[in-house]
Amino acid sequence: MKHIDFREIKTKGEFHEKLKELIDLPDYYGNNLDALHDVLSEVGEKLELNIMEPKLQECSEEIAKLVKGLKRLSQDIVEENPNVIIKWLNPEDDSENIKRSEREVCKEKKESIETICVQGGYTPENGEPRQIPIIQSTTFKYATGEEMGKLFDLEAAGYFYTRLQNPTNDLVAAKIAALEGGTAAMLTSSGQAANFFALFNICEAGDHIVSSSTIYGGTFNLISVTMAKMGIEATFISPDATDEELEAAFRPNTKAVFGETLANPALTVLDIEKFAKAAHSHGVPLIIDNTFPTPINCRPIEWGADIVTHSTTKYMDGHGVAVGGAIVDGGKFDWMAHKDKFPGLTTPDDSYHGIVYAEKFGMEGAFITKCTAQLMRDFGSIQSPQHAFYLNLGLESLHVRMPKHVENGQAVAEFLSKNHKVLSVSYPGLPGNKYYDLAMKYMGNGGCGVVSFVVDGGREGAEKFMNALKLAAIETHVADARTCCLNPATTTHRQMTDEQLEQAGIPAGLVRMSCGLEDKEDLIADIAQALELI
């Protein structure tokens, strides 16, 4: 979607220069509206243009005449060419539709990731709340049934029931989309819901998924057991697989490739470019769970990923306050180019009067719109507005917290690697780690504060060690401001067999330690005294 804001344009020349930035115009254009009519009449690809009108009392006569002529032209173009969608937005209208468009305009500006963390997604107008407002309401009032009907038909933007969408959630989702460099995003009730929605949005009974084998145990169970009951099969493959082994995992009915940037808890690093190349050669998207690095340390879309998911419960929240998840669409996968593979996006949806998502919303919006309109409608895994508010507070300091987590994780990993009671340490920031080079490629500023290591004595040794810690709490959690630890084999991954644990790179004595924001010397001292008791 492209944007022109006449409130920022003072002359005809500025308008035409802005137009040239957005649209590839031929030499004969010559800043002429008649020529523009010819250009837009011949557009063969989807073009969506939002035009914000000027405030009449503030614009010049020259701009007023230009806008009037452009409006007439746009009416003709929309009737003549179905590929062109032009929406006129009135600055006097304070509807949510206008505010969302303005957020999209802001998203196009190239702010630093630090600024996006603090101010992305929401720009208050004069007299509006400085902080994102919590819209704690299940429903929304409309003056006429016709207005609400347009929402049900997906003909207008807005809100009618929080099970599908809520303004607070959308503001926070817009920030996450900007952080990841995506075009659209949605919040979910948890990270598991985000991964399920991302996959089920394009998979159905009879389909197949290729997945990295070293992924979070809950996600492994989701794909290998729960989705298998729904008729969706999966092939799990090592993240270290050769090109030939990766190629062999695909089937004619494969619909997606899934992996984690930095695996939980094995801390293997996925070669995103290699997996993206394989996925795209088979006409399917690469879906990446980017929970551990966060967009502060890695932006998978820039490396070829198509869809990015998060458990926002982790570093994005960062304080163990609110469970949640997010899905971000990179807006680059051409669903229509692979029409036969993705009928849910490329053929009429009978539950919405025959709408074709990929045609109506384009590459930038089809995936998230369908995911919201169908899956959120039917499963209702919405994140509460209160949780979204808490999440946004966490996002505002994400760029400050992540470097400290990485600093502590690196220091702890270096200490553990020299201790004789530690059999092995998995932390890709260590130069001797097998994933060090990939980590430097994809996460040059470090990955996260999670360190996985194997202590002497197996499960019993791990239990003794953890029970002796004073600062680190034993929790079914990770990526928190406070240091915590866990033995995955007896907790998060206990549903996996020994063979599956070995395949996922999780020995019985493995301890996953999430280094918080405490002083690194205090953490090391606590670990040292606990190791002495094994």
Q: What does this protein structure show overall?
A:
This protein is α/β, with parallel strands linked by helices and 534 residues long. Helices cover 41% and strands 14% of the residues. The protein has helices spanning 12-22, 33-41, 61-80, 96-108, 113-119, 145-152, 167-180, 191-200, 217-229, 243-248, 272-281, 294-297, 343-346, 357-379, 385-395, 398-416, 436-442, 458-468, 498-503, 520-531, and strands at 2-5, 47-52, 84-89, 184-188, 208-212, 233-237, 254-260, 286-289, 307-311, 325-329, 422-426, 450-455, 473-474, 484-486, 510-514. It has a seven-stranded mixed β-sheet, sandwiched between helices. A five-stranded mixed β-sheet has the order 11-12-15-14-13. The chain has a three-stranded parallel β-sheet with strand order 1-2-3, sandwiched between helices. It starts with a strand and ends with a helix. The model is unreliable at 93-109 (pLDDT under 50).
